[in-house]
Each structure stands twice: as C-alpha cells, then as structure tokens.
Amino acid sequence: MGAGRQEGWDEGRVNASQHVGHFTFRSDPMRIVFGAGAVAALSAEAEFHKMSRLLVLCSKSRSDFARRVTAAIADRCVGFCDAAGQNMPREAFERLLADLKRYDADGFIVVGGGSPIGLAKAAAATTKLPYIAVVTTYSGSEMAARWYIGVADDRVSGDGPEALPATAIYDPELTLDLPARISAASGMNAMAHAVESLYGIDTNPVVETMAEEAVRLLGSSLPRLIQSPQDLDARTDALYGAWLAANFRAKVGLEHAIAQRVRQWFNLDHAQTHAIATPYAIGFNADAAPAAMARIKRALSVGDAARGLYDLNVRLGLPTGLKDLGMGEADIGKAVEVVSAVKISHPKPVAKADLVNIITQAYAGAAPRF
After folding, report:
1. Domain spanning 8-25+181-226+249-364: which CATH class is it, in words?
2. Reported pTM
3. 50, 217, 286, 364: least surrounded by Cβ within 10 Å?
C-alpha cells in the first residue's frame, strides 16, 4: 500500500467531512533527498545502505546520461543494464535479473523516469535487493508500491513495500534537458495522481492538503517550463509538485483504469494517455465529489475543474484525444471491454454505458461534456 493511505474503519467513505476527524496515515519507509545538486548524495546513500556492488539500470537512449550521473560512484558500479523500455516488456525484466545475478550485485541504481523505475520495482520485489532511484521525470512511479511486467494477457503484477527504493533522489538540475513535450506529459501524469486522490475512498486530510498543493504547483510550473525549459525554479516546483502527488495513490479510479489499460492494450504513450484521460474522469465525477472539485478549481484558479485540466493540456501543447496517439475508432469497443474488467473505486458508480461515453469523448478529444 502506498504512502498516505487511510485504512480500516473509514474505508467506505468518500470526502467524508469538511472537518478533520479520525483518520490513519502511514508513510512507507523510504529516504528522500531533494534539491538542486542532490545527486551528489548518491555515494553517501550507497554507503548508508551498505551497497558495494551496484548495477546501473537505465534505458538505451539514456545510457550516456546514466554514466555521467553515476560517475562519482563508479568505483561501486560493477555493470550497466540499458534494458528499460515502455510497458515493462518481459524480456527486459529477464535481462535485468540475469545481469544482477551475473555481476553478483548487492543492490542497484536506476536512473530515469517511469519505465526504468517500473522495471526496477519489479526486480526489487523479485530479488529483494535494495536500490536507489535517481528520478529524472515527473511520473512518480518510485513512490508507488504497485509493479508489473508484460502487457495485456501476458501481464504479471504485484504490490508491496519491497518494490520501493531504499532512497529516491530528486535533483531538478537533472531534468533541465527533459524535452518540453515529455516534460508536459510527465507533469500531467503527476497531475492525474493528485486529482484522483482527492476523491479516492482512501483519502484523508493529509492527502487532500498535499494533493491540492501538488495541483497548484504543477498547474503553475508546467506552462513556465514549457516556455523556458532551463528555468530551474520552474523545474524545482514541478519536481516538488510531482513528489507531493506521488506520495499517495488512491485505489484505482476511472482515470487510472482508462489510462493504464488502454495504453497497454493499444501500445500508447504512457504519460500522454494519462494527460488525455484526466479531464474526462474528473468531469464524470464532478457532481459526486464537490469538495475535490472545489480544491482543483482553487488550485488552478479556474471555474470548472474538468475544463481547467483540459485547457491546461491545450496550453501545454499536448494532444487531447486518444486518436492523436494512434488509437483507432474501431478500438473503442475493446477499450470499454478491458476497462470494464477493472475494479474501479469511486464516489460515482461507473456503468458500461458511462465508459462508452467517457472513452468515446476521450478518443475524440473535444472538451469534456457531462
């Protein structure tokens, strides 16, 4: 279970009160090192966790970058594995496990965003080896204990604290070269975590406060960094907002169900699918979660939560419809089918007819209408 969950007696309530009442809050055991230049702590963190034979995990396109990032700890690095890729393919997982065994690693470092970190989580859950995550995007995967490998019917998944990193390092200087479009999509992926957690059945006052601040920071910083990618203050605000958003994860809501299942089945870009799905999920739930909508509107300074999120996608230059990512109109029926199979925890029940309407709107990409 991720950090910031409410458990036990109150689990069936949604946004139960405007006032602070009883709640249970739990943080998962993880060290966080945040700030410009934070990557300099890499050696000290490896020493703290008694890691002396480290494998470095990254994606093929970021191999040179990962070598630069870990140069100061090269004496502890016994090998590199650049197997990470979209959707956690099983062959990448098997290659990582083989490399960990071949190099007799007692831990590893993962450098990158959601895909490398997702692979790291699956490996850590399987091998019980500790690892350090050097986070370079806004996906927040490093804070979620859920993991999986493979796609569609070949998917294997799990959920447990052993998947989490021993330390997560957030250095905004490492995000300065993240391309604008990737930054925008990754930031809206973080936004999705924040807004859905506001009405999750396991929300609580701590989560709501952090989520609203995450929405505010992301909503203000993402347009700034798109205009000026080298703006370190904007990058810092975005990374901090993403970390706040990642500190909690609502039990699977409509946005997460649509984005995760649809992008896996149709091989769509992960972050952009989340960005597209978010306004429609919020629009569907608006009348059932007024307190959450009030927080989103306040954080974004908008009159309508769903339209505000949609307009933010437009402002960031992101696609607004699944058709823009390569999904076909003929795929809507299959998308409804695979999302229907997910248990969705919600303030508002989701019928199959609702999914047809929501996914059809998300496919076309016009402003949400509910």
Report:
1. mainly alpha
2. 0.89
3. 50
